[in-house]
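User: What would this chain look like folded?
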Amino acid sequence: MILCIWSLIGCERAIIPPRDSLIIGNGAEPQSIDPHKCTGVPGIRIIGALFEGLVTRCQERGGICPGIAKSWNTSIDKKKYTFHLRKSLWSDGTPVTSKDFVNSWRRLLNPETGAEYASLLNIVIQGEEIINGMVPPASLAVFAPNDSTFIVNLKAPIPYFLHLCAFEPLFPVPGEIISKYKEKWTSPAHLVSNGPFSLSHWQPNKNMVLKKNPLYWDVKKVKLDKVELLPIEHEETAYKMFLNGEVDWLFTIPLGKVDIAKKMREYHNTPLYGVYYYALNVTHPKLQSPDLRKALAFSIDRKKLVKYVTKGGEIPATGFVPVSADIPYAGFNRNLYNQDSALFYLHRAGFSKQFPPPKLSILYNTTEGHKKIATAVSQMWKEQLGIEIELLNYEWKVFLQSTKNLKHNIARASWIADYPDPYSFLELAISDNGNNRTGYNNPVYDACMEKSRTMSDQYQRMKQLLLCETLLMEDMPVIPVYFYASNELRSTSIKNAIPNTMGLYAWKHLSFGTDK
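Assistant: Here's the prediction, encoded as structure tokens.
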């Protein structure tokens, strides 16, 4: 029975007896736990526990700490990185070597892998040519002169390169295991990893169990023995399970329960470097007009949405790139709600309330929160523009595949930065980016972004990125809605849970119950 005290303290969580595992509501069944084939947060979160890269995200916000690389140095021109690897093992007892990184980065870029994050490595010499099938993956300018040295040659100085190395798609994978078991290599019977945890059990759509990896190089700092992850897409169900003591950690809260959750001692709210937006399929005949897309953008009352619908400390979006005190970027920073502008662009597109454009649809993955936001936005579009909107919802994997194949008019989307830099958001609109869910293809925008990658002066580079964002907001293939804040419910027994700006945690520092 759920123990609820409807008073000033809200709804209290049931007291539960001690147990040996931390139970997490992971939101959805992961798309994949192959570092090269996953894009969604549910999978990335798990990969971050199973694998480790050259460097790791420090427990402190914004920092980078040594991972498999114990140290590194750069050339004077910042184009060459030399990583010195520590002695570490895969969970089957074989050594992790620099060749594992060479082969893994080649696999990420190989067109046969189909990695949506392949473009991350187009900053490496020959990376872009490999993606385009012009040269073989072995041409990538990364080298392993010996088992403990990994060398990377970049096309230009990349200010965020080390942060990129802490991102899960750049983690090493066990090449021999993949060659032997192919697509089945991520099953519990075959998966070999090098992170603080190993995969013990996985029953899709039911649960996944991770156990401390005794062969992890820093195992003495790993405080959790066991973690169980539940793929609970229905937020109300997850919320009730948390109150009942069946789940210890939720990364999302039903929108209708945020006000109650705020009064609970388990509630945590943190700004995130992320944006909630709508991805418009600009290849669809209904949405090829930039003016119609801008009419849709300017008719969303974002202040009303975050005040009365989301209620979780979100900030109305003023551009596509979030504002962050940690990053020296001014951003687009304009009021995107203006009824007069909305009607102006609607008329310029050849429509009006009396002669509205064809009926449109919003596609969202199955959660009550996305439904409420889509309902509110569709009502605004109906009232202000006279546009009829159909709401469609798919479960997570189908949703990802549908948006990837542009089988939508308008799709709910969100992006939490992969690394602390505006480029992480703006690259989503590059024509050949694997995470471009809009079909947007503008050579001028692509050239603008390409120029920003080769600029060593950080101030000038930020000015260049602002030019790119301004162009994006003029074409409006994406409609920014709000900048994220994390709203979590976390048992008071969980310690050392310090999120970075991307809302991810250093798994090995987490503890549950009494510290060991």
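The mean pLDDT is 92. If you want, I can go into more detail on any region.
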